[in-house]
From TrEMBL:
<dbReference type="InterPro" id="IPR039420">
    <property type="entry name" value="WalR-like"/>
</dbReference>
<keyword id="KW-0238">DNA-binding</keyword>
<keyword id="KW-0597">Phosphoprotein</keyword>
<dbReference type="InterPro" id="IPR001789">
    <property type="entry name" value="Sig_transdc_resp-reg_receiver"/>
</dbReference>
<dbReference type="InterPro" id="IPR016032">
    <property type="entry name" value="Sig_transdc_resp-reg_C-effctor"/>
</dbReference>
<feature type="domain" description="HTH luxR-type">
    <location>
        <begin position="156"/>
        <end position="221"/>
    </location>
</feature>
<dbReference type="Pfam" id="PF00072">
    <property type="entry name" value="Response_reg"/>
</dbReference>
<dbReference type="InterPro" id="IPR058245">
    <property type="entry name" value="NreC/VraR/RcsB-like_REC"/>
</dbReference>
<dbReference type="Pfam" id="PF00196">
    <property type="entry name" value="GerE"/>
</dbReference>
<dbReference type="InterPro" id="IPR011006">
    <property type="entry name" value="CheY-like_superfamily"/>
</dbReference>
<feature type="modified residue" description="4-aspartylphosphate">
    <location>
        <position position="59"/>
    </location>
</feature>
<feature type="domain" description="Response regulatory">
    <location>
        <begin position="9"/>
        <end position="124"/>
    </location>
</feature>
<protein>
    <submittedName>
        <fullName>Response regulator transcription factor</fullName>
    </submittedName>
</protein>
<dbReference type="InterPro" id="IPR000792">
    <property type="entry name" value="Tscrpt_reg_LuxR_C"/>
</dbReference>
Length: 227
């Protein structure tokens, strides 16, 4: 068994029972713990808090909500899981919408078992993983957002939008990979306060999700230790 896979707790969300079951079976046989399966977004959001997945494998087309809405909902959990999209669609709009909502991996369903397991392993470790051909699309979007932030986001004095000391500290811990609950504990503030700081920072920087915040922090040198 792969020790990296054994520690991963997975939630599989897909409205096709046979496909959902096949993915869950492949993951369990490889050593992961499948903590739940769901055929719709409502069930996924209902069981996730108690199941505590570290990673969610999500289809984009669900009967009650879009996969993008589900990804955004998972991101609001106290301990949000990493999200790997497994979709039949390789359309650019779908990929970018998923990434903006918080997904850090995107595979099309033509991926084989080994590609899926490799993506699960890497996304759970915090890496960004995309089906070949899609990575360039996502990188191009990051560059476009960066250019927009440097332009429209700058103040009249030519400086980037200013963050408060607390926002900067929260951003530094987000970039280090800490979950919101861990950040709240370290800073002795509530989980909700952490979420508010993150949302304020996203608004100021004209960014959309945690992955983009991490990239911004790295670009600005905010991700290092201050201790």
């Amino acid at each position: 068994m792969d020790s990296a896979l054994e520690r991963i707790r997975v939630l599989v969300v897909d409205d096709h029972p046979m496909w959902c079951g096949a993915v869950a079976r492949d993951l369990e046989e490889a050593g992961t713990t499948v903590v739940g399966t769901a055929g719709d977004g409502a069930k996924a959001l209902r069981i996730a808090p108690a199941a505590r997945p570290t990673l969610a494998v999500v289809d984009l087309h669900l009967p009650d909500m879009s996969g993008v809405e589900l990804i955004a909902g998972l991101a609001e959990l106290p301990d949000p899981p990493h999200v790997l999209v497994l979709s039949a669609s390789g359309e650019g709009e779908d990929v970018l919408a998923a990434v903006k909502a918080g997904a850090t991996g995107y595979l099309v369903k033509s991926a084989d078992r080994e590609q899926l397991l490799d993506a699960v392993r890497r996304v759970d470790a915090g890496e960004a993983v995309y089906t070949p051909g899609l990575a360039g699309l996502v990188l191009g979007e990051y560059r476009r957002l960066s250019a927009r932030t440097e332009g429209a986001g700058e103040s009249s004095s030519g400086q980037a939008p200013s963050l408060t000391p607390r926002e900067t500290e929260v951003l530094r811990l987000v970039a280090k990979g800490l979950a919101y609950k861990q950040i709240a504990s370290r800073l002795s503030i509530s989980h909700r306060t952490v979420q508010n700081h993150v949302q304020n920072t996203l608004t100021k920087l004209h960014l959309h999700n945690r992955a983009q915040l991490v990239r911004y922090a790295i670009d600005q040198g905010i991700d290092g230790d201050e201790d």
